[in-house]
């Protein structure tokens, strides 16, 4: 092993081969502080060529590799297991914006670029990269692509896969595939790009990407709406699509407890409504007309919805600060739930038409099995993605409640499957859900996935133990 480590030091420099336990610590701990892995070393290459050199060495010595970006994942996909036999290959030093092509509406970037960094740089040329996540100041675009991240603007712009035109990837044997093509049409065989996106580093290591850019909207309209049922939220979504068309950018569902936890733990954020409702919707429209036109559109939507008895109350942001306050309420839910204590998270997707029945049915099942459980339900209703989280009953021991995680997962995931949904919408499978995957994927799907894994990574050194 010392020979391997010496060769790594020669390839990238001794200071970028981290062997000290304290130096390795931030790379070994998962984002939610639930698990900690062990690593032979943390390797920090500076560019794609160095990544390729390191992967060749790992292939020669049969050393497992866990590629890591910002380490913000929620399914234990970006940390190694406890064995200490794997290396973590950090992409954080690959952080350059290589090229912005305004005429082609693309940006070519390193995989280690922070999502927020990309947003800021393209904004300087009056363009928009619309992928938006609560962790955008910490997550990297390579990680976003590896998990096919979604976020709050999927309704209008699509998820990470739809926002990427080309990739640069280091394969499991250390070769570099340069697929950095900024083409919107390229029908020349199998789409390798789509195989690597969402593969969580199990097929190869993404080192660069060509991203789609869009014209930057000139104005926004933001509204928070209180409603009395999810079915009314679904009906309102259909109405919003009819009346707002392509301007409808975000349509976020927030249940009562989610909002109350935010106000409890982040009292600096202003309450919008004096009277509580079971559910709330955060809407955003963005467009290229005047601010008055956008405001008129959302006012027309609210007025029509009021007449149809779909909403209880509504508030339209009259300033940037008010809009920011509305978004802060939404983006602070996960942090508020963490401050409240341990919880059991689910990242699921469903046909939008099935969401109301799913929530009602599943809430009853959880309450019957675990009385007093508190449901923190929120997410991207516009694309059918719910964060269906379960917090312990008030005054209960959180540790005791977490001991029932497998049972609660089974209720939620079985119901998700029953209603035609997926147990992972945007977080991935990682190590956390790989056993669950075998329950809900068909034997044919699993066989095809294993065949792809074997073809791309015959020695199983790329993020082993994840997904499959």
TrEMBL record:
Biological process, per Gene Ontology: respiratory electron transport chain
Cofactor(s) for this UniProt protein: FAD
SUPFAM superfamilies: FAD-binding/transporter-associated domain-like (SSF56176), FAD-linked oxidases, C-terminal domain (SSF55103)
Keywords: FAD, Flavoprotein
UniProt-recorded Gene Ontology molecular function terms: catalytic activity; FAD binding
Keyword Cell membrane assigned: no
FAD-binding PCMH-type domain span: 35-216
UniProt entry tagged with the keyword Nucleotidyltransferase: no
Protein family: Belongs to the FAD-binding oxidoreductase/transferase type 4 family.
Protein name (record): FAD-binding oxidoreductase
